[in-house]
Amino acid sequence: MNNPIVIIVGAGLSGLRAASLLTEQGIKCRVLESRDRIGGRVLSTQNPNRPDLGKFDLGPTWFWPQHERTIANLVKELNLGTFDQYTKGAMLSERYHNEPPERYVLPENSDARSVRFIGGVQSLIDAVANTLPPGIVELETRVTAIRLDKAGAITLEADLANGKREKVSASAVILALPPRIVARHIEFSPSLPTDLMTDLVNKPTWMAGQAKAVAIYDRPFWRESGLSGFVSSWVGPLQEIHDASPDTGSGALFGFFGMPAKIRRELGEDKILKLVIDQLVRLFGPSAKNVSSILYKDWSRDFETAVEEDINPLRDFPIYGKPPRGGLWEKKIIFAGTETNSQYGGHLEGALQSAEQAVLEITNLKNKPL
């Protein structure tokens, strides 16, 4: 590969980290992102009327430094602030309608220590993006087609926000997107091999069927009652709740929904959030009514994340890992993203490891004649 221009599709953690590693090695690259923001499924947001209360994660929240060395090393290298997930006090278990929740004190160290970012996971995204030269990331640039000619040249076609279409040449492409998004939203000419296409379609996108709600308070009042904020519920609508308070001052509780995407759509956001507040009041008492605001993100309704297949609830943990070889596309397109990592698929660690693997493949190509 002489004077390679590597095109990375997707400016989530994996795509940005791949760009950072390529840039470090002096390999030219561009990152094309269809959203109007960087981060992909990382989304840290705040109450616009009360930014003083902090930022809250509507996507991934934690990492586990004792098991996940890649992210732990990167956090250290980028000098990012972190703090331990709050777990002191009793958990609540809500098993039946019309019965008060049961209170349990978990044995110390019963859970692996999970760690959060000061300022949300967006602080990791921003720090990685800050290692890139200006202008490398192009937002609102939706790749719709990738073509390979007989001479082996790659051309990408992308729709821009202004309605224009751009053609981009590449010596190789890193697809740092959920596999199903690749399969459903990008046209390949010639077509991808059938076994590769089948593999992409059959890999559920992590979080795509999920939704998260965060209730923000002036202070974490539940701690005063000796509660950790951790809840397991068979009643719902949230089936798992955790303390989402920032490291200083304000309080927050976040939860994952037990109800399927289809039911969430039928109910609508207003009804769902009313049910969430009702549940928090049931669990934590009348103080839970005094929300400063409630944030909600239904990933199944995010066109850049989910496809129709993702609406069906997952029955088992998905099997993730590298897709099969690409036939004519071998050495031309390289897959990255958390779903392509077999050990840490679904985690930030998986996204970072997949970026490292993709860059290794690019550098191997660079050092070999095609």
UniProtKB/TrEMBL annotation:
Domain Amine oxidase residues, every copy: 112-359
Pfam families: Amino_oxidase, NAD_binding_8
Lineage top rank: taxon: Bacteria
Coiled coil spans: none
InterPro entries to which the protein is assigned, alphabetical: Amino_oxidase, FAD/NAD-bd_sf, Flavin_MAO
Similarity comment text for this entry: Belongs to the flavin monoamine oxidase family.
PANTHER family: AMINE OXIDASE, AMINE OXIDASE [FLAVIN-CONTAINING] B
Name of the molecule in the record: FAD-dependent oxidoreductase
Native source organism of the sequence: Metabacillus bambusae
